[in-house]
Specification:
The protein has about 80 residues and is of the alpha/beta class. It has one domain: Transcription Regulator spoIIAA, CATH 3.30.750.90. The protein contains three helices and three strands; from the N terminus they run E-H-E-H-H-E. It has a three-stranded parallel β-sheet, with helices on one face. The protein is elongated. The relative contact order is 0.26.
Length: about 80
């Protein structure tokens, strides 16, 4: 089993074939996507129900990534912290 930890960028969904076929990745763990004042590397979330579209794309981009990973049987984990 190979797990890759990455921060989201709008191009991950284009790299899914490479991740699965060349690197044999089974899961990806994506860092925080939520809006944040960025005081501690994105772990001080302001809204847990939204994606920071200025940095990480839209909810549609996230859904595109989720579908692409699912088609290749790659699990996706999101990093969240609750204070």
């Amino acid at each position: 089993m190979c797990v890759v930890y990455m921060y989201h960028d709008e191009g991950i969904h284009e790299k899914v074939d490479y991740l699965k076929d060349n690197l044999h990745v089974d899961a990806v763990c994506i860092g925080p996507l939520n809006p944040t004042p960025n005081l501690n590397y994105g772990y001080n979330i302001m809204n847990y129900n939204a994606i920071d579209e200025n940095h990480y794309g839209s909810m549609e981009d996230f859904e595109k990534l989720r579908v692409a990973l699912h088609k290749k049987s790659i699990s996706m984990f999101l990093t969240l912290l609750y204070f």
